[in-house]
Structure formats: structure tokens, C-alpha cells
User: Which sequence fits this backbone?
């Protein structure tokens, strides 16, 4: 080490406490991120193993499904050979992993389309439905929960509170396929305002987004109402009110920041749940997303498609979780020290 | 004072609480407009959407195997001959033909061109057929065209193509009516990989784009003026410039899309079509598509290995009631292994069909354990449920399973053998009695297609005569075969099952065996 390199440090030393603090924060972040990335890697490996084993238990012979009932056994065998279905299990597994490392998820048994292309075509559609659902949660669930909490705090609005409880209870209990069917009957078949076919354009995503997000919006509104009520019961809120701070400022300055952490955590969990919920909704609205595809693939014993889609959705869920963890670390550094969320 | 302050805040709270609900309504209302397909009753000639049952395996005719494959293939490829709705053969790419059990000679139509401009010659046709016949191609439908274990070659001579079979098979002509034998032109034969998502045929449409498993788009060939000479082919109106085939597996969703004007043509096996035709101007046509038979598992150890049990089961089933449940009474009762429109159908089989007799059935079936399963393909599997309840009524102890079609097919072809009674639903695209018989003779799965392990040497011998001969000799042997099978209750023919196809106002098309022939679609201008 040369003198030149140490000289600046010696002449302009940063405050000792600050350096320790920076090094400490950096160390915490490094350890935090390494822990999270390690977890992500573990999830990917587990997903790989599970999906590969899972498809072995999917009933039916993919080759017979492809050639149909009229084909002879010799023709079925030709297809089995082509697909490598009779290769020993370790050979199949090794081949799959080595292809995966090269970014190749194989070809669909049914349509012969590369799985990477299939996912690239359908993932944006599923993601649009899921984010649409999240938008419904954010635009309906959060404001509703906060509004009801404010209304209830005053001790009045019993009727509104009761109506809210009934409405949120029903909406939260309805499965996505019932909600979707009701929405189609009302808004597509009866009123004719929106298409029964989902996807394709903005209007095609409205009903599916509501169907996938409504139950979560109802559930989240209850959580937000409860959180908001707890915050409004704090002494500092009474102090703020005594200073005649307006409801708007109270909301923005005190309630929202406190609700944000739990909201963010829940938002991530909900987004992952919404991705799963699209499987049902896509079928109700005939949307060509990953949900529709995975149902078709399971029925047809299309192993590469099943593996590829589950792997993609699993990694996506893990990435959403990682992003939320990082965001929470930024918003609330206490989680770095704990190394985990509350 | 507190109360005075509280009231407006409460109102604001109520207002805010209503925002969510209002936003939900507003979100839908503000979108306004009409569904993307336009309102019901107005169909433009530029684009037409029709329903497809499921994902397409390949556009390559030789590799097709499913309902949806054949619908798609028929839009891009023509066959030598075609089968009209009444079961008669009509010219396709061949204008004349002479057929025996060992060979067939076809005269190829003049003036036909391929989608890339190549002139269709007898040599092109022979080359295409030889690819289909080649074991290397592994065409799933091959055994239905030339017979299992057989081989064939096609040769061109002037304007004629001759097909020679190694051993006689009387099902050749009917096999050649099916889309899987569609004629592929030279460029496609030179590089068959281009046929997976592209096309190189003589059909009315050319493959355009596709989202595999979701929708398939085709472009009209303006010069297409040949094609099968069906008797009822529509002639008025324009052909759509763009044809979209959209995969919609759920029949209620199909009805929703038709009710909102987002789909012009769709097929149904449930009564969901009722909702569609209630709209003004919509029409429907009923076309017999599948043949159904009751199969009994003859494998040793199964109660149905006993002929007395099989007869009792047959007596417990009221076929008319089953037809009502299975297809809302729109099917036709059958007594042979196929529809009454097939060649060699033996009407005298009515004389030896088991009579419906619950008392006689109960005497045998009381306390017998039976495993019943079936596919949900027809009316969601209601016919299977009827079989279950009929057998229970006769005193049998019944376990029951309704399976989706792929699961059911897979179950039949595995050695699991966990069923005693099932309804075989067979879409016999080649419309001959020999194809149905394939499921009741030869080796059992996984080696063969004898799904219920029938062992009836006398019937097999009659079937062999029917396969190796044509005309009256073949028909007489088929009649013998049918009698031997039914009298031994090796199978019980039930009924045909139709597809009801619905059309938007002004739209017409030829429907054959429940399949819409895309090349015949016309839209009133």
C-alpha cells in the first residue's frame, strides 16, 4: 500500500462515528441481500426439483394424447421416442437442467412451440390481469378501509359501517369464478358495456381485473380499516386533532405512513396470490394467459409446458417477495437489523 | 357543538366509503362502447371468428389427430374425395375414381393451384400420399386409411393417381375423405417443418398468424373455386377475408361470446346453443358427429367378463332415455357400430338388440359391484351419470367417475384397467363401420386398441372378411360381425351424438359430421 493512497484518509478523516455507521449499514445491507438472494436460489432449486418430480405424477400418456385414439401402438411409440419419454429418469432430469442453463425450456409436446416463446406470449397477459387486480385492491380496498375507519371513529355512520361489513363479507367470500360469472352476466350479457371475452385491449381487462381483485380488495379493506382505527386511537392523533389539523393532513401526515409498511407487505403477498388467482379468471373470460395454458397443459400431460409455467410463476413470486423485502429495508431500516420482517 | 362537527365528518366518511363501490361501477361504465366483436346482428365480410375446441397439434395434415386439428386442416387443404352429410362420396381434388379392396385409381381435377402458385399435378398428389403412407411420417390416422399393419404406395400416370395396397382393405376410400390425408404441395413436402405453423395446400385459406393454443388466423385465397362438391354447399354471399379460429373450451363461454356478438360460428354438445338461437336472426344446424357404444371390460377378474352380467347391464339401460340425457334427444339410436348413414349399416340388427328389462337385469345385478366411468365430452358426462343410476336401479353397487376426455382416453390405454363399464364416444371422421370395430379386436392396450379386451374369434373372422372385400360381400360380413358381437353382448351400440352449430345472422357454412368446413363459409353482403 503506497503512502499516496493512505494520505487523503489521514488528512481528511471522516467522522469516526459516521464511518462506522456507513460500514455498519453497508454490512447490514450486504448480509440482508445475500440472505435474500440465497433464499431465492434455494426457491429456484426447490421449484426445479418439485416441478420435475410433479409432472411424473400427472396421469396419462402424453404420446397417446398427441396421436389420439385411432393411432396404433407403433405410432405412439414413435412419438414417445421423439419426446424422450422412455429415457431413464436421471437422463431426462440432466437434459432438462442442462437445457435450462442455456435458457431453453424445451418445446411443448402438444403445439411443438418453444416454451420460452409460449411464456413470452402469455406472461404479459397474465401479468396485466394480476396488476389490474392489484389496481382494484389499491383503488378500492385501501381507500375503502381508511374511509370506513374514519367514519366509524366518529361513532356515527352505523348504517354505512353495517353495509360495509355485509358487502366486504360477501365480496371477500365469493370465489373468483362466481364473481367473474356475475360480472359477465351483468356487464357483458345484460348491459352490453364490456366484452365477455377477456384480454385484447383495455376494455377486455376491466372485468377480469375486478374478478381477480375484488375478494382481495375486500379482505385488505378490513385490514386497513383495523390498522387505521388503531392509529387513530393513538394519543398523538388526539394531540394533532387538538391543534385543528385537517383530516386530509392527518391522513397524509400520520395515517398513511404508518399503514404503508404493512400495506406494502400485504401488497406483495396479494400480488403473488393474484397471479395464482388468474388461473381461474382466465378460464372464465377465455383469456389466453398462463392460467389457461397451465390447465390445458395439465390435461394434455404437456410436461415441458407445466414445468416451464410453474417455474416462471414461482420465480416471479419469489422476485416479488425479494423486491418487497428490499423496499421494506429502505423504508424501515429496523428490518435490516432483524434480518427479517416482523 | 361536538355533534355539529361530527355530522359533516360522518357524511364525508360515508361518502368516502361509497367511493370504492362507485369507482367499481364507474370503471366499467366509463369504458362504455360495445364489445370488440360488434353487436349481434351485424357481421362484416372482412373478418369472421369461429370457435375451436382446443389447441391445434400441428397444421401438418399427416400429423393431425384431434377434432380441432381436422377443422383447421380442412381450411387449408383439400382431399381427393369428400363425404357429404348423407354419407355419399362427392368429388374433391379427384373428379372420378375406381376403387377395389386392393387398389384405387383417382383422376385429378384440372386447374387447381397450390397456395404458392404451383399447379397441382397427379405427381404432386402421389408424392403427398406417399409421405402420408410412409412409416417414417408416423401419421396417427394411417391405420384407418390403409388398415393396421398394412402398407401402400401411390404412383402417378398422366392425370391419374393409383394407390396400391399390400393387403386388401375396404376402408381406403372413406379414409381418404378425412382431412389428415389432405394433399400437401411440393414446397411443403420438401421441407415438412414449414408445415407445423405454415401451409402449402390447395384449400380456401392460407395460414397467417397464430397464438398457439389460443387463436389461429387464416387469409382467404381469392382464386379458390374448386373444393368438395357438397350437395348443400352455400353459394350466396362472400367468403371472409380473414378467418380467426379461437380456442374456447367452455360451452357457456362460447354462448357468452356469441350472445355479445364476439363470435359468429360455434359448435355445442350441451344445450348452451339455446341461448344463442334465441337471438333474432341466428340459425343453427344439427349434425351427427360421434357414435357411442357401451363397452364392457372383458379382462379376467372383472364382473363384466361374465356374459350374463354383460347382458343384464344391457337390459338395465334404456337407450332412448340415455339418448335424451346424452344429447337432449337429438341423437339417433343405432344398432351397429356406427351411424345409419354409413355404408353397410344393417337395419335388421334391431331384431337381436337386447330389450330394456329392469326386472331381468336385477335378477343378475343385485349386489354386483361395478365401476363405471366415462368422458365429460358429451353434455358434461350426463350420459355416464344415467348409466350409473340405471345400474343402481337394477341393484348393482356402482362406483362412478366422470373424467375429462384426455384422462379418460389415457385410462383406456393404460394397463390400469380400473373400470367395468364405460361409454365409448368415437368421432368417426371416416364414417365407416370398420373404424369403430377397431376398438373391439386384436391386442389389448398398450400393444393394441382392443380397449375392452373382447375375445370373439368368430366375430374377428367376419371382420377380416369385411376388411378384405368390398361391396355386398363386405357388407354381409359386417352384418355377421355385428350380430356376433351384440348377441354375445361384447358391445352395446347406443346412439349417435350430434353437434349443434350456430351461425350469426347472414352467415352460412357446410357442416359435415359436426365439423364446419371453413372453405364453404359465406357471409351475406
Assistant:
Amino acid at each position: 500500500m503506497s503512502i499516496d493512497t493512505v494520505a487523503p484518509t489521514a488528512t481528511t478523516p471522516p467522522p469516526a462515528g459516521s464511518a462506522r455507521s456507513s460500514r455498519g449499514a453497508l454490512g447490514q445491507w450486504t448480509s440482508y441481500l445475500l440472505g435474500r438472494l440465497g433464499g431465492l436460489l434455494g426457491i429456484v432449486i426447490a421449484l426445479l426439483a418439485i416441478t420435475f418430480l410433479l409432472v411424473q405424477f400427472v396421469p396419462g400418456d402424453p404420446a397417446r394424447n398427441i396421436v389420439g385414439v385411432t393411432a396404433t401402438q407403433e405410432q405412439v411409440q414413435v412419438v414417445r421416442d421423439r419426446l424422450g419419454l422412455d429415457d431413464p429418469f436421471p437422463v431426462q432430469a440432466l437434459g432438462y437442467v442442462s437445457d435450462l442453463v442455456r435458457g431453453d425450456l424445451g418445446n411443448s409436446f402438444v403445439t411443438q412451440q418453444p416454451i420460452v416463446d409460449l411464456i413470452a406470449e402469455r406472461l404479459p397477459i397474465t401479468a396485466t390481469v394480476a396488476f389490474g387486480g392489484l389496481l382494484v385492491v389499491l383503488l378500492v380496498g385501501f381507500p375503502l378501509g381508511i374511509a370506513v375507519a374514519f367514519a366509524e371513529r366518529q361513532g356515527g355512520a352505523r348504517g354505512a359501517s353495517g353495509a360495509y361489513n355485509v358487502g366486504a363479507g360477501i365480496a371477500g367470500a365469493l370465489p373468483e369464478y362466481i364473481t367473474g360469472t356475475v360480472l359477465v352476466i351483468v356487464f357483458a350479457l345484460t348491459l352490453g358495456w364490456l366484452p365477455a371475452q377477456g384480454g385484447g385491449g383495455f376494455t377486455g381487462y376491466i372485468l377480469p381485473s375486478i374478478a381477480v381483485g375484488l375478494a382481495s380488495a375486500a379482505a385488505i379493506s378490513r385490514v386497513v380499516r383495523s390498522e387505521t382505527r388503531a392509529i387513530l386511537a393513538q394519543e398523538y392523533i388526539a394531540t394533532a386533532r387538538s391543534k385543528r389539523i385537517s383530516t386530509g393532513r392527518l391522513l397524509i401526515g400520520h395515517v398513511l405512513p404508518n399503514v404503508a409498511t404493512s400495506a406494502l407487505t400485504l401488497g406483495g403477498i396479494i400480488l403473488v396470490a393474484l397471479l395464482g388467482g388468474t388461473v381461474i379468471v382466465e378460464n372464465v373470460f377465455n383469456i389466453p394467459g398462463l392460467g389457461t395454458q397451465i390447465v390445458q397443459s395439465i390435461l394434455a400431460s404437456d410436461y415441458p409446458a407445466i414445468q416451464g409455467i410453474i417455474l416462471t410463476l414461482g420465480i416471479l413470486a419469489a422476485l416479488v417477495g425479494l423486491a418487497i423485502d428490499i423496499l421494506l429495508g429502505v423504508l424501515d431500516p429496523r428490518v435490516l437489523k432483524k434480518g427479517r420482517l416482523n | 357543538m361536538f355533534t355539529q362537527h361530527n355530522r359533516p365528518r360522518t357524511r364525508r366518511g360515508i361518502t368516502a366509503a361509497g367511493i370504492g363501490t362507485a369507482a367499481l361501477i364507474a370503471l366499467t361504465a366509463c369504458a362504455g362502447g360495445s364489445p370488440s366483436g360488434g353487436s349481434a346482428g351485424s357481421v362484416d365480410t372482412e373478418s369472421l371468428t369461429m370457435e375451436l375446441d382446443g389447441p391445434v397439434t400441428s397444421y401438418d395434415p399427416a400429423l393431425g389427430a384431434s377434432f380441432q386439428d381436422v377443422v383447421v386442416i380442412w381450411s387449408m387443404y383439400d382431399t381427393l374425395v369428400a363425404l357429404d352429410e348423407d354419407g355419399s362420396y362427392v368429388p374433391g381434388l379427384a373428379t372420378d375414381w375406381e376403387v377395389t379392396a386392393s387398389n384405387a385409381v383417382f383422376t385429378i381435377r384440372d386447374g387447381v393451384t397450390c397456395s404458392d402458385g404451383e399447379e397441382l399435378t397427379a405427381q404432386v398428389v402421389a408424392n403427398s400420399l406417399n409421405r402420408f403412407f410412409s412409416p417414417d411420417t408416423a401419421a396417427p390416422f394411417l391405420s384407418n386409411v390403409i388398415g393396421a399393419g398394412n402398407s401402400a404406395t401411390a404412383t402417378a400416370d398422366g392425370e391419374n393417381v393409383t394407390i396400391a395396397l399390400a393387403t386388401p382393405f375396404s376402408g381406403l376410400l372413406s379414409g381418404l375423405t378425412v382431412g389428415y390425408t389432405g394433399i400437401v404441395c411440393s414446397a411443403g413436402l420438401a421441407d415438412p417443418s414449414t408445415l407445423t405453423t405454415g401451409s402449402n395446400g390447395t384449400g380456401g385459406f392460407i395460414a397467417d398468424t397464430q397464438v398457439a393454443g389460443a387463436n389461429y388466423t387464416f387469409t382467404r385465397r381469392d382464386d379458390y373455386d374448386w373444393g368438395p362438391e357438397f350437395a348443400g354447399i352455400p353459394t350466396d354471399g362472400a367468403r371472409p377475408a380473414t378467418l380467426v379460429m379461437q380456442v374456447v373450451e367452455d360451452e357457456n363461454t362460447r354462448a357468452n361470446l356469441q350472445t355479445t356478438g364476439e363470435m359468429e360460428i360455434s359448435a355445442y354438445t350441451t344445450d348452451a346453443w339455446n341461448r344463442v338461437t334465441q337471438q333474432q336472426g341466428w340459425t343453427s344446424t344439427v349434425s351427427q358427429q360421434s357414435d357411442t357404444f357401451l363397452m364392457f371390460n372383458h379382462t379376467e377378474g372383472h364382473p363384466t367378463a361374465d356374459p350374463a352380467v354383460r347382458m343384464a347391464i344391457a337390459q338395465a339401460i334404456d337407450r332412448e332415455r340415455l339418448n335424451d340425457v346424452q344429447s337432449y334427444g337429438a341423437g339417433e339410436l343405432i344398432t351397429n357400430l356406427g351411424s345409419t348413414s354409413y355404408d353397410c349399416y344393417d337395419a335388421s340388427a334391431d331384431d337381436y338388440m337386447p330389450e330394456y328389462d329392469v326386472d331381468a337385469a336385477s335378477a343378475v345385478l343385485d349386489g354386483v359391484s361395478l365401476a363405471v366411468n366415462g368422458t365429460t365430452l358429451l353434455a358434461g358426462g350426463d350420459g355416464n351419470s344415467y348409466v350409473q343410476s340405471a345400474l343402481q336401479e337394477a341393484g348393482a353397487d356402482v362406483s362412478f367417475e366422470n373424467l375429462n376426455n384426455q384422462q379418460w382416453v389415457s385410462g383406456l390405454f393404460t394397463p390400469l384397467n380400473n373400470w367395468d363399464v364405460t361409454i365409448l364416444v368415437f368421432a368417426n371422421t371416416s364414417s365407416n363401420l370398420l373404424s369403430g370395430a377397431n376398438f373391439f379386436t386384436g391386442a389389448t392396450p398398450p400393444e393394441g386398441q382392443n380397449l375392452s379386451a373382447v375375445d370373439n374369434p368368430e366375430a374377428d373372422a367376419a371382420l377380416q372378411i369385411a376388411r378384405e372385400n368390398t361391396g355386398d360381400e363386405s357388407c354381409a360380413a359386417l352384418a355377421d360381425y355385428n350380430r356376433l358381437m351384440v348377441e354375445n353382448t361384447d358391445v352395446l351400440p347406443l346412439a349417435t351424438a350430434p353437434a349443434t352449430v350456430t351461425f350469426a345472422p347472414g352467415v352460412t357454412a357446410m357442416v359435415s359430421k359436426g365439423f364446419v368446413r371453413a372453405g364453404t363459409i359465406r357471409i351475406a353482403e
Chain B touches chain A through 80 residues (CB under 8 Å). Chain B has 16 helices and 20 strands.
